[in-house]
Amino acid sequence: MTIKWVQQDPLVLNGEPFCYGSRLTVRQLLELRASGYDLTRILTDHPELRTLGVAAAYVYAAADRERYAEFIETDGSLAGPGYTATEAEGLPVQYRVPGIVVKSAASAA
Questions:
Q1: Which end of the chain has fewer CB atoms < 10 Å from its terminal CB, N or C?
Q2: What share of the chain has pLDDT > 90, as a percent?
């Protein structure tokens, strides 16, 4: 079975895209990240989430830059801390996107 990690249903959360298995929207995840929450803190506070699901939400947001423009930095990365290289090791290639999922070199410095 393939899981669609980000789902959208007009009858759930007023159609706002949300993470599979939770009632946490992509926007809420981006707000947490922009507020300085790293992956460990997000997963601790929301144990229903999965590492892959959070990465999928970040990639989803990057693909819809107009909708999530307030979370996109001028260099094209997402605001806030991303995954460390170690946290991203187990992710499929399509989710190891520098600046979107994985901390960019500029933000890691």
A1: N
A2: 82
